[in-house]
């Protein structure tokens, strides 16, 4: 093979690798609108979801309620970029023997994140849809006991 052809193949390979690397970062970057503290007001009180960025490939989240001065954590969550996939990984108190469950991203955009795990009992789908910069809808859906179920949680940003 001629030197010019080797050089051309090397340059094209580097361009493809660079484009692939940039795409990997963009998936989790598209989710940055989630960062902050979100509140869902209910008749029984407020439920919060807090998201922080832990580097270029990981977000940490938790959902909890505050009653009087007590904070009750329901779940700890990670969103991680691994290779060419984005994962939503919740660990829910008193569920799944305390082990995390992995949901893979099925849709990622500037306004929506949809994660799916068809083998999970319920939910099989977890979605976040940005309505405005300070409001979103969190939704869990799937089948439970043979019946389709869906729960939505409208949330307002209380802190960036």
List keywords for this structure.
56% strand; 160 residues; 10 strands; ten-stranded antiparallel β-barrel
Unreliable sequence segments: 10-14, 18-24
Mean pLDDT: 88
Rounded to the nearest angstrom, the distance between the terminal CA atoms is: 56 Å
Task: Give the overall form.
Answer: globular
Helix and strand succession?
HEEEEEEEEEE
Task: Give the strand content.
Answer: over 45%
Largest sheet: number of strands, sense, barrel closure: 10 strands, antiparallel, barrel
The assigned structural class equals alpha+beta
Tally of individual helices:
1
Helix content: 10-25%
Q: Widest sheet: strand order?
A: 1-2-3-4-5-6-7-8-9-10
Number of strands: 10
Radius of gyration: 19 Å
Describe the structure.
It is a single chain. This protein has one helix and ten strands; from the N terminus they run αββββββββββ. It has one helix at 3-29, and strands at residues 36-42, 45-53, 58-67, 70-82, 85-92, 103-108, 112-116, 125-132, 135-144, 147-159. The chain has a ten-stranded antiparallel barrel.
Walk me through the topology.
Layout: H1 3-29, E1 36-42, E2 45-53, E3 58-67, E4 70-82, E5 85-92, E6 103-108, E7 112-116, E8 125-132, E9 135-144, E10 147-159
Antiparallel strand pairs: 1-2, 1-10, 2-3, 3-4, 4-5, 5-6, 6-7, 7-8, 8-9, 9-10
